Structures are given as structure tokens and as C-alpha cells.
TrEMBL record:
Protein's membrane topology: Multi-pass membrane protein
Subcellular location: Cell membrane
Domain of life: Bacteria
Primary residence: membrane
GO molecular function, one term: transmembrane transporter activity
Pfam families cross-referenced by the UniProt entry: MFS_1
Domain Major facilitator superfamily (MFS) profile: start-end pairs: 206-401
Alphabetical UniProt keywords: Cell membrane, Membrane, Sugar transport, Transmembrane, Transmembrane helix, Transport
This protein's name: Sugar efflux transporter
Length: 401
């Protein structure tokens, strides 16, 4: 570990990618409805096509990045696609044009997250003392961008219109693109090393599937909460709208220090074990939200929520990378795609729950999701431990022979 001077560039790159997204995505659905006159069905179609194409294309690219494609080249191409997409939205005034741009260029830009964090993991393993803490700091940089990015986007929209926010998003990603193209290292791991690693890769398919299902449960529960709580507070509890900003702000304020210290916690307790504790914290959080209607209790409960999301959003990817060390691009992109799939699941769930029950009932579904996730992660931990023991015994038998 002889060099770590470029680690701050990775953190800056994560921050700029997060900032670009935070200027664009919170406004995109509102833009489609208000400016392009999209119906609820058209909005759902846009989300399904844009997210679905991103998942398929980014996973296709990720597999090739683990063998012979350059991660930096993919990253530059993905950010270029992102730049074209958000810049196009400053002038688009037709729904189907927006869908086409999102599917063509947005699907390519979906590879950016996975490739940046795969390249960051390779760099961290080679040059940084604690690569888990390094990745946690990168993830925190992305999260910080989402703390103040959306409020800035809505202020720009209110003062100057959608085009101003989308133009700022384009400028941000362009700056990030220049920094990455000029300063981020290219081949931390050589093509020969990649090919050798993939040719010797271990079969972890069953564990990966189990883990991914648990992550979909976790992030679907969280996204369903984020989507439903504004409606629950405003339409059913009839409380002051300022509650929402304070609750979300408190959760974000708690997430950042958790993300920054997640690596050290994982080193002491174990990655999967600390994740199980965080999901249990999430279950307790939803119980408090289900049983309390006072602002003080809800605000205090955000400490639990911050620990829950801070750990899962950070170490969730690290755990998957640990399982697939010979396929870091695939692992990082798979984690990103699990979060995208969670958005689709929660989007469908909020419509069903709101129509059949009420928005308060969405908290029960979120609670159920994290309880299922706890069970799956406990099973995963035991199976992973069993696999490690069997692997150690197999190696020992080879040595004895």
C-alpha cells in the first residue's frame, strides 16, 4: 500500500455523480407530469423502461468490465451518456422523445455507479490501508450530495424553471467527467489479472441470490417509507409540512457519520453481522413510526433509521464485492441494480397499498420487508460460514495429500 494520494479524487467523483443525480432525478417525474403532460400510466411506463433498460445494459457492461474492457473507459462513456441525457432534458418538450433519450443514453449512464465503485475497490485494495473505510467514505460523499442537492434543485426550479436545474446537473457531470478522464487511474488491475481471476472464480450463485433478495427487501422497505411518509403525514395525520423536512434532514444527518465509520465497525464486528444489527434497527424504527404520532418520537426514531440505511447503503455493496472479488464490476453494478429494482417494487407497492388500504399501512409493509431481510441475512451468514469451513477443510485435505 504505497500510494493513496488519489483516493480523494475517487471521493470527489462519487460526490459529483451524486450531485448530478440529486439535481435531476427528484425533478424528473414532476417534469414529465407538469411539462410533458404525462398521465400516471405514462409516468409508470417511463420508469419501467428507463430503469429496466439501465439494469439490463449496465449488467451487460459489468460482465465485460471484469474481463477485458477498461473500467475508466466505461466510466467516461457512462458519464458522457449521462451528460447527453440531462442536457437534452433542458430542451425536450415531447414525452416520447424523453422516453427515447432516457432509454438510449440513460441505460448507458447506469453503468457509472458500478464502475466507479469497482475501480475504487481495486484502488483501495492496492493502495489504501483500509479499503472498506475508503469505499464507505466514497459512499458518504455520494450521500452528502443528496442531502443538499434536491433542495437546491427545487429552488432553481421555482426561480428559473426545470431547464436551470437540468443545466446545472449537466454542468456538474461535465466537471466530474473532466476530472475522471484526466486524473482517475485507468488499469489498477491489468487485463491479464482480470482474465486470470475470472477463469478461477468460485461459484457463489446461491449465496449471491439469497443476499440480493435480502437487499431488495431492505431498499424496497426504505423507498416505500420515503414515498409514503409525506402522504401519511400530510393527508392522514394533517400535520405541518415542516415535519417532513426535519425528519428527512435528521435521518440524513445521522446517515453520514454512520457511513464514515462503517468500515471500522465492520472490521471490529464483521460486515454481515453489523448489517444484521442495522436491519434490526430498521425494524425497531418502523415499529416506532407505527406506534407514535408525536413529532418528538418520530424525530428521535430517525437515529435508528440513520443507522439502518447508513450501514446497508455502505456495507451492502462491500459485502457483495467480498463475495465476488474476482468480478468487482459485476458485483458493484448488481448492487446498484438491486436498488433500482427496489424503486420499481416500492413504486408498484405504494399504488396498491394506497388504493386498497391507506398510506399508514405502508409502514406495515416496510416493517414486514425488513423482518424478512433479517431472516434472510441470518440464513446467509450461516451458509457463508458453513461454506468457509468446507473450503478450509477441502484445502487442508489437499495439503495433507
Amino acid at each position: 500500500m504505497v500510494r493513496d494520494n488519489k483516493k480523494y479524487l475517487f471521493i470527489f467523483a462519487a460526490f459529483t455523480i451524486g450531485l448530478c443525480g440529486s439535481f435531476f432525478y427528484p425533478l424528473s417525474s414532476l417534469f414529465l407530469v407538469e411539462e410533458l403532460n404525462a398521465s400516471p400510466m405514462m409516468l409508470s411506463l417511463y420508469m419501467i423502461l428507463s430503469v429496466g433498460s439501465s439494469v439490463i445494459v449496465s449488467q451487460f457492461i459489468a460482465k465485460r468490465s471484469d474481463t477485458h474492457w477498461s473500467r475508466k473507459t466505461i466510466l467516461v462513456a457512462a458519464l458522457s451518456g449521462n451528460f447527453i441525457m440531462v442536457l437534452s432534458f433542458t430542451v425536450i418538450r415531447d414525452y416520447w422523445t424523453a422516453v427515447t433519450i432516457a432509454v438510449v443514453f440513460g441505460s448507458i449512464s447506469g453503468a457509472a455507479f458500478g464502475q466507479l465503485f469497482a475501480l475504487g475497490r481495486e484502488y483501495g485494495d492496492k493502495y489504501v490501508a483500509n479499503s472498506t473505510s475508503f469505499l464507505s467514505t466514497m459512499r458518504a460523499g455520494l450521500a452528502i450530495a443528496w442531502v443538499f442537492g434536491p433542495p437546491m434543485a427545487f429552488m432553481l426550479k421555482a426561480q428559473f424553471g426545470y431547464s436551470a436545474s437540468f443545466a446545472l446537473s449537466a454542468l456538474t457531470v461535465f466537471i466530474g467527467l473532466l476530472v475522471i478522464a484526466k486524473y482517475i487511474p485507468d488499469e489498477v488491475v491489468s487485463k491479464e489479472e482480470k482474465i486470470e481471476a475470472v477463469s478461477n472464480k468460485k461459484s457463489v450463485g446461491g449465496l449471491v441470490v439469497l443476499y440480493c433478495v435480502a437487499m431488495v427487501c431492505v431498499f424496497s422497505a426504505n423507498t416505500l417509507y420515503i414515498t409514503s411518509i409525506p402522504l401519511y403525514l400530510s393527508q392522514e395525520l394533517k400535520v405541518d409540512v415542516s415535519w417532513l423536512g426535519l425528519l428527512f434532514g435528521m435521518a440524513a444527518a445521522c446517515e453520514i457519520p454512520v457511513m464514515l465509520t462503517a468500515g471500522k465497525m465492520a472490521e471490529k464486528v464483521g460486515t454481515v453481522r453489523i448489517m444484521i444489527l442495522s436491519v434490526v434497527s430498521g425494524a425497531v424504527f418502523y415499529l416506532v413510526m407505527l406506534s407514535s404520532t408525536t413529532f418528538g418520537a418520530m424525530l428521535a426514531a430517525q437515529l435508528l433509521n440513520g443507522f439502518f440505511i447508513g450501514i446497508c447503503a455502505t456495507l451492502g455493496m462491500v459485502a457483495l464485492q467480498d463475495m465476488m472479488k474476482d468480478q468487482l464490476g459485476t458485483a458493484s453494478t448488481l448492487f446498484s441494480n438491486m436498488m433500482s429494482i427496489s424503486v420499481l417494487v416500492s413504486s408498484l407497492a405504494i399504488g396498491v397499498v394506497g388504493e386498497i388500504f391507506d398510506y399508514y399501512s405502508a409502514l406495515y409493509f416496510s416493517f414486514t420487508g425488513v423482518v424478512i431481510a433479517v431472516g434472510l441475512l441470518i440464513v446467509f451468514e450461516r451458509l457463508e460460514k458453513k461454506q468457509r469451513i468446507e473450503e478450509a477443510l477441502r484445502l487442508q485435505s489437499v495439503v495433507d495429500k
